[in-house]
Write a structure and sequence with these properties.
Blueprint lengths: L10 E5 L5 H10 L3 E5 L3 H8 L10 H10 L3 E4 L7 E4 L14 H10 L8 E4 L8 H10 L10 E4 L9 H7 L2 E5 L2 H12 L6 E5 H31 L4 H8 L22 H8 L5 H24 L7 E5 L14 H11 L3 E5 L13 H5 L4 E4 L11 H7 L4 E4 L6 H6 L3 E4 L1
Parallel strand pairs: 1-2, 1-4, 2-3, 4-5, 5-6, 7-8, 9-10, 9-11, 11-12, 12-13
Antiparallel strand pairs: 6-7
Helix pairs in contact: 1-3, 4-5, 8-9, 8-10, 8-11, 10-11, 11-12
The chain binds ligand SAJ.
Length: 422
């Protein structure tokens, strides 16, 4: 479809007000677009319209407040007519580890009654290759309007890092893949108004592959770091020293080993490639298996450290999927805790960022009281402020297992702690 004579996009409907959709809606609104945020969850709609953030993310409160106050952002449970629709809904894994696209399907169907010739539909959710110019265009065609002829359709994958979403939303480059060049150009015009980084135009399938390969690449690299840690331990070497020294090579940059890979993206997205092309995505599958087995490896190491103690108590510091975020979805901590518990340990969890978790959350004083070990699983900045001497006085034995290599070892050792790292 041609762009000639098309009015520019002024009104937008964003479907899905989660970690990506809400910050995107707020940033678009403060940049002058008239935005309707759509989410089926009544409590999310209510809190957005009240200018309150339903998710913890640095800077979001300020931008959301400004967006709502400007009158440019309003949330509701159903879409309404607009120049463009942006779909930013979750795409979790199904039981067989293929992509569950039911939210994308529902969102696309919900806009059908509102579509008009010349509308643009942008998919931001991460999807398997071929979804935008396939499942999405097929559903949109049910409106009676034909993609490429009557509708512009594009994929513009989100690339923001939880904990830095607002900054990255503006600073990162964006990849805009259209089902045809005019669709890409039409969508790019929106992102150019909010993004300081470059906006690259391509096809929808290239944009889908770019997003999946970005996250798969990170997963493989983290698996390499985790495997490096296990190999180092086989010869009783400190993996952090090995990795730090290897990284002095000008072309080596090994990532950080840790308690496992969590979050709703990196442990999920590589499976979209693995299940779409199992004959080809072999390294990615192995990386997933390495990272998925890391929490149990960490738990077994912790169990070995407390093996001689009767009914040991472990004070677990940080259960978010990574440091300084309040998100515990797909957190490796859960599997670590389940393994410790099923092996007879008493568990006490501290996390200043996470609000809800399957294990009770305690304050630091009660958590360390009579504990035999502090097991640090997420490097939240607050943990660095605790005095090892004061903490140690309450404990039954002074052992720190720091899976993130975060707390200053010498200082904790000076306070009488035996410090163990991955
Ligand atoms: N992790 C390690 N070692 C490392 C780095 C990370 O064990 O050296 C672990 C973290 O602790 C965490 C997991 O990996 O459990 C993932 O954390 P992350 O910070 O690497 O990534 P996410 O999941 O928070 O966000 C990723 C980002 N993707 C890339 O960096 C390629 C982000 O840009 C994406 O937008 C996001 O996924 C997404 O939504 O897809």
């Amino acid at each position: 479809m041609s762009l000639t004579g098309e009015p520019t996009v002024e009104t937008l409907c964003i479907l899905g007000l989660g970690y990506v959709g809400l910050p995107t809606a707020a940033v678009l609104a403060v940049n002058g677009f008239r935005v309707t945020g759509v989410d089926p969850r009544g409590e999310v709609v209510e809190s957005v319209n009240a200018g309150e953030v339903p998710i913890a993310e640095v800077g979001l409160k300020t931008v959301l407040h400004a967006a709502v106050r400007s009158g440019n952002l309003h949330a509701q449970s159903d879409p309404k007519p607009a120049d463009a629709f942006i779909i930013a809904v979750p795409t979790p894994l199904r039981e067989d580890r293929s992509a569950d696209l039911s939210h994308v399907e529902q969102a696309a169907r919900s806009v059908l009654p509102h579509l008009r010739p010349g509308n643009l539909v942008v998919l931001e959710s991460t999807v398997p290759p071929g979804t935008t110019d396939g499942l999405l265009t097929d559903i949109l065609a049910e409106s009676g309007l034909a993609p490429k002829k009557d509708l512009f359709v594009a994929h513009c994958p989100e690339r923001v890092l939880p904990g830095r979403i607002l900054a990255e939303l503006v600073q990162n480059d964006r990849i805009v893949g259209g089902i045809d060049p005019d669709s890409a150009e039409r969508a790019a015009a929106i992102y150019r108004r909010i993004v300081e980084g470059q906006v690259f135009l391509t096809s929808a399938v290239v944009a889908e592959l770019v997003k999946l390969l970005e996250n798969a690449s990170r997963d493989v690299q983290i698996a390499f770091a985790n495997e490096a840690a296990r190999l180092s331990r086989r010869w009783d070497a400190d993996p952090w020293e090995v990795i730090a020294l290897a990284n002095h090579h000008p072309r080596v940059d090994i990532l950080r080993p840790g308690p496992g890979v969590g979050g709703h993206c990196i442990p999920v997205d590589p499976w979209f490639l693995v299940t779409s092309a199992p004959d080809l995505a072999r390294l990615m599958k192995t990386a997933r298996e390495v990272n998925d087995s890391q929490p149990v490896w960490v738990a077994e190491r912790a169990l070995a450290e407390v093996a001689n103690l009767p009914h040991p108590k472990i004070s677990v510091w940080g259960v978010a999927y990574k440091g300084n975020v309040g998100d515990a979805r797909e957190t490796p901590a859960l599997q670590v805790l389940d393994t410790l518990k099923s092996n007879g340990c008493r568990i006490s969890v501290v996390d200043f960022h996470v609000e809800r978790f399957p294990y009770p959350l305690e304050d630091i004083e009660s958590s360390v009281t009579d504990a035999d070990c502090i097991l640090l699983l997420a490097d939240h900045r607050e943990f660095a402020f605790f005095e090892p001497e004061t903490v140690g006085e309450r404990m039954r034995s002074r052992l720190l297992f720091d899976t993130c290599n975060f707390l200053p070892r010498a200082r904790w050792e000076k306070a009488g702690f035996r410090v163990v790292s991955l």
